Each structure stands twice: as structure tokens, then as C-alpha cells.
Amino acid sequence: MAVLEHTAETLLNEVELPEALRAKLRPGLEAALASLETEQGLNAGGKSRAIAQFQNNLSRLAAISADRARHPEIAEVKIDRPVFILGLPRCGTSLLHALISTDADIRTPMSWEVADPSPPPEAETFRTDKRAAAFDAYVDANFTGPLAEVRKAHPIGAWIPQECGMILETSFQSLNLPMLFRLRDYYRWYLRADTRFAYQVHKIWLQHLAWRNKRDRWVLKVQEHSYHIPELLSVYPDAIFVQPHRDPVTVMASISRLLESLRSMVFAEQDRAALGEELLHLWHDGQVRLMAERAANPNLPIYDIRYTDIARDPVGAVRGVYEFAGLTFNDEKAAGIKHWLADNPADKHGRHSYTLEDYGLTAARVREVYDDYIKAYSEFL
Predict the structure, then answer these.
(1) How far apart (Å, rounded) are the C-alpha atoms in residues 302 and 273?
(2) What is the pTM of this model?
């Protein structure tokens, strides 16, 4: 096997970063590179794509770090009582996040500004920033062929709220890397890692994005927060959580299809049964940790909600989240939600089709692995 030309040091030397950041980035970057070196099955361009993503992560972090050095007041921006949506994938989390993003009083990280964060976005030009149109042009040009399937399952666009995964991966302590490139050794490293640095980087991002475009509260989402609640709380001690729930049997089929589509660009062939088994445990790992955290801390401020309630009554679902988080909800906000739903039907880019059997799974197998989750949250399934 050819040795990768890139090392953590060579990649870090391509960007300008404070030594304190470089030192904290190095362990995760080294773990990712070591895992990439041993990962089997990547196609001719797979490792190159991974390296390009690593470089992009470093470049984005370097850009906001440079802005922060020029404008030290960014570090003084307060992030009060952020709301984090977490849980299993395919549980309505993205829909809930998108609906809340229609509220002019709420700040969610938009996809274009996470992709191209410097200079910091400004309130006066936010809706007309040319970076938004550039992001949509990129999506239209690149999410074709096998990747067209991704848009059927998951909305992608400049004005779609971005998950925290694209922020966290700039710390190289993120679940995004094994999801996209498998990186099994890195995933094992990630499970053992102290990810407080990831959330320190996450806060740097929020301060950067809010500096000249501040709102009352942040609402954020990604499933991987479930793995590291103590580290999240070390940075955001007043955080509030929302956890949608859905039958894991339905979840596993859907997320397996989505990840197969995403990985199609980097793997020459994919063993669907192996993928199904991998993801079956990967997402369960996060729930095991979250259930343990909730059991140990029964006063954790977390709002449980059914996926079926989000799908049946989206306005009512958002209202419930607002009431729990101490946010104001009114008819104007309800109208914004209804307008978004009319503009974004579920099958806007085609239907996303899948079955458990496609991935070597059965309902009985899923329920066997998720027995603890099903028992813990039966009233919400």
C-alpha cells in the first residue's frame, strides 16, 4: 500500500494557525491520517478526496482564527442558552431545525456561511451575500449522478441550516470523518477522545458567525452531540436539548441508504450488509452514552418529542420546543413555518427509497440491538 504523501505536519504547515490550536488539532488529524492509510476499498480518488476535506477543514478554521486575531472583540460575543437538537438520524431533526430557522429572532448556522465563513457575515448584507449563490451553484454542479440520491433524502442548499458536524470536523474530533470515509480506526479513537476541544472550536465558530449578525438565541443540531454531552456542557453549561424519537427499524434503513449514497464517491464498491451492520452499531453507540448521561443527570434539560408529532403537526412541534426552551412563539412565526413547508415538500428532489433487507438487516435484528433504547423511550416511539 502506498504511503500517504501528507502528514499532520505538512497539512498544518499549509495554513497559518496559532500554535495553541495547532497542538490541539494534531492528535485528531494524526488519528484521521493513520486510519485513512489503512482503510481498505477506497477508490482511486477516495484518499485524495479525504485529504482535500482535511485541508478544507484546516483552511476554514484558519480563516476564522485570522479574523479573530484581527478583531479580538469576537471572543467577547456571548452565547446564551443554546438549544441543541440531537437523537438518532432520520428522526425529523433536520426538518425541525429548518422550521425553526425561519424565525428571524433565532440564529442557525446557514450552509453557505459554514462553507465559506470569512469575512464574518453581516446582518445588513446577510440575505444578499454572494457566497450564498456560490454555494447553491456548487451544490447544483456537484450533487448529480450518484450524489443526486443525497438530495432526495436530505435538503442541501445555501439557506438550509447546516449541521454542527461541518463545524466540529474543523477540530478533527468529529463523527463526520468516519461517516464519510469509514475510517474505522479513527472512530475507535473518537470514542475514547476527550472532545472538549471540539466544543471550544464550536464556540469559536458561533462567536464568529454571531459577531455582526446576532440574534436572541442559537438553535443547533447534529446527532453526534449525543456521544459527548459532558464535553458539550463544559463549554455551554446552560445548554438546552431537544431529542426527537423514531422507531429504529425505520431509521436504520433510511440512514444506510443515505450513507451509501454519500460514500459512493470514495468507495469503488460497497458491501451493503457490512454497511448496515456498521451503522446499526455506530448510531447505537451514541444512544448508549446519551441514555447513561440522562440516567446519571435526571435534571438535564431535555425535551423528548415524537417524530410522528413533528410530521403530523410541524407548527405544534415547534411551539412545544419553544415553550420548553423559553422562546416566544406567535402567529407570525407559525406563518413562516407554513411558508417553508409549502416551498419545500418532502419529495422536492424525488423520493428516497430503501428497505432494511437492502442492507442485510431485519426488523428483529434492529430491535435486538436497540432493545435498551426502545424500552427507555417506548412512549415516544
Answers:
(1) 34
(2) 0.95
